[in-house]
């Protein structure tokens, strides 16, 4: 695999040197492709392209995402900042540090491990806190550009892991929103409810994406900072 990866990196370097289109790419111009290729991976998984018969579809989409990663790394190598080797080594070190239930600090395998997901998450969070000591909130590092639903879900997940309560929102009448939201059961009914919420919002001229982002901002603004 090492030789194949090295050859791929060489091919991309040659494209940057000899292909006018590839040579003109920048970090900024690549962003739309990175986003598009990532969504195509999601689509391939959701379409069920993970079995032996049609896994080639997913393999190809993953290759397109890897191409984006290698291009970004190549741009930085040309600028004299870092190379794809630094990216790989940095990721390897991070995975070792953040998974002490699997690895010793030197990268050798631990003699025993744990099957407790909560313990694994605590170890991950502790390692991350050491790596990023300037972060004072459990929500630091969540990309603000995430789609609103993903942003809300990630924010609430971080809150729960940090022990921050996620209370029901208040309606205009002062009653909790949980009393106003129809009862739903399962993914299909939830999807229909979200679709109907968007329909009502757009009929009233409200941008549902912006409304949900604003709700996330209100929640994070009122949450306490991280404590040791």
From TrEMBL:
Highest taxon of the lineage: Bacteria
Domain (NTP pyrophosphohydrolase MazG-like): residue spans on this chain: 26-103
Q: Name one Pfam family in it.
A: MazG
Q: Which PANTHER family match?
A: NUCLEOSIDE TRIPHOSPHATE PYROPHOSPHOHYDROLASE
Q: What is this protein called?
A: Nucleotide pyrophosphohydrolase
Species, as recorded: Arthrobacter gallicola
